[in-house]
Automatic annotation (TrEMBL):
Keywords: Signal
Coiled-coil region(s): none
Keyword Signal in record: yes
N-terminal signal peptide: 1-31
Name of the protein: Trypsin-like peptidase domain-containing protein
Transmembrane segment boundaries: none
Keyword Mitochondrion: no
Length: 408
């Protein structure tokens, strides 16, 4: 999250197991017919690590010398970093014959992504790119990705080369690598979205349109579907170039299955497609990026949100669904205590561009929608600093992008 330039005390990042969705899976030897190779890896140069002002860093880029060959002993490769929260594998080359393919899977097979020589998203899995040769497979939750060559050929030679991977930080590392200001105002009243499924069913349902945004493998924000067509909205300070959009994943339905549980599923992951517009001015102004995704049909069932087209007012009841700290989705509905005071707009005209509120947020909430009791988006969250966490005014954003969206 981008934080206002003011003197603020720092706070520790305190997260439950579900908050980070820790899925520390290992790769037992008995899961494979042949003992797979798990090559050593090294931290990539600092110049290649993810860094962006105001964006929560959640991963580390590592280099590896890995390959798949047609020899029976070389058809499986394990990419593993103990304790990692996700692994995202890069293929520098893929040399497959017709009918052959590779898969990148979790050890238990719950996540599996398939790639053939054509990298056709219509017949295979989604992927991301970074402008360099090769492609990035979609990330796999947990600390292990099992890469497998599927071929009936018995011949010599290499079929694929793996040169890099991102591995997700654990909760301690996120605190270590990110400066956190006071954006949780007093007591953190956020809860897993499923906690509100019965008591606040509409707020719960509207949150389905909100996704975790993994930026270029190592950064984290929040994004959400806007309107009736293939359009997504997040902050400009999260990304602002076509290259960054093409290198990013949107993870829908990444949330805990039970209230306070440590059981998030992998959800549904799609890649960024086309960047349509970014706001002008700095990140303290409207701070938006409008884009689309590949495989839009896969995420249509999660619903959508609509922008308010007129200004909100001070005292308006509000709530915020999002992925603060990169955690499974949580809802900010109450200020400090469950069933206590509801979150409200503190100042509907904090400045030309922003409204303010004390509703709890944290790094990773950048790009979250701020909704009113009519479930329209009244602001796009982007600045932290209690008591004046801030969101860019939605009606001003609407005025700039109305021709590019179907706002219902």
């Amino acid at each position: 999250m981008k934080h206002a330039l003011r003197r603020l005390r720092t706070v520790a990042v305190t997260l439950s197991a579900c908050t980070l969705g820790l899925s520390l899976l290992s790769a037992p030897a008995e899961a494979y017919s042949v003992q797979p190779l798990a090559p050593q890896s090294d931290r990539a140069p600092e110049s290649d690590q993810f860094t962006a002002e105001g964006v929560t860093t959640v991963g580390e880029l590592r280099t590896v010398d890995g390959s798949l060959s047609y020899a029976r002993s070389g058809r499986t490769q394990v990419i593993q970093h103990p304790g990692a929260t996700y692994v995202k594998v890069h293929f520098s080359s893929l040399r497959l014959a017709p009918g052959e393919y590779v898969t990148v899977s979790s050890p238990d097979g719950r996540e599996s992504y398939r790639y053939d020589r054509h990298l056709n998203r219509a017949t295979g899995s989604d992927y991301t790119t970074d402008g360099q040769p090769g492609f990035w497979a979609m990330s796999v939750e947990g600390d292990t990705a099992v890469v497998t060559l599927h071929s009936s050929r018995a011949s010599r030679g290499s079929a694929a080369t793996i040169d890099r991977f991102w591995r997700g930080y654990d909760r301690t590392e996120i605190a270590q690598y990110n400066f956190s200001t006071q954006s949780v105002c007093s007591t953190d009243a956020r809860r897993d979205v499923v906690c509100y499924q019965s008591s606040h069913p509409t707020e719960y349902a509207r949150g389905n349109a909100v996704a975790r945004l993994l930026i270029s493998g190592g950064g984290m924000c929040t994004t959400w579907r806007i309107g009736n067509t293939n359009r997504m909205l997040t902050n400009k300070h999260c990304f602002s170039t076509q290259a960054a959009v093409s290198g990013s994943e949107m993870q829908f339905n990444y949330q805990c299955a039970t209230c306070g549980g440590a059981n998030p599923g992998a959800g549904t992951k799609v890649s960024g497609a086309t960047l349509y517009r970014v706001s002008s001015g700095g990140s303290s102004q409207l701070d938006y990026a409008l884009f689309s995704v590949n495989n839009f049909a896969a995420i249509q069932g999660f619903g959508t949100l609509y922008l308010a087209t007129t200004a909100t007012t001070t005292g308006t009841q509000m709530y915020i669904p999002g992925h603060g700290d990169g955690s499974p989705k949580r809802l900010s509905i109450f200020e400090d205590a469950q069933n206590g005071a509801r979150c409200t707009v503190r100042n509907a005209n904090y400045n030309t561009w922003n409204i303010s509120y004390s509703c709890d947020t944290s790094g990773g909430n950048s790009g979250s929608p701020v909704l009113n009791s009519s479930h329209r988006v009244i602001a796009l969250h982007h600045l932290g600093g209690c008591p004046s966490n801030q969101g860019a005014k939605a009606h001003l954003i609407y005025n700039e992008i109305a021709s590019l969206i179907d706002n219902g």
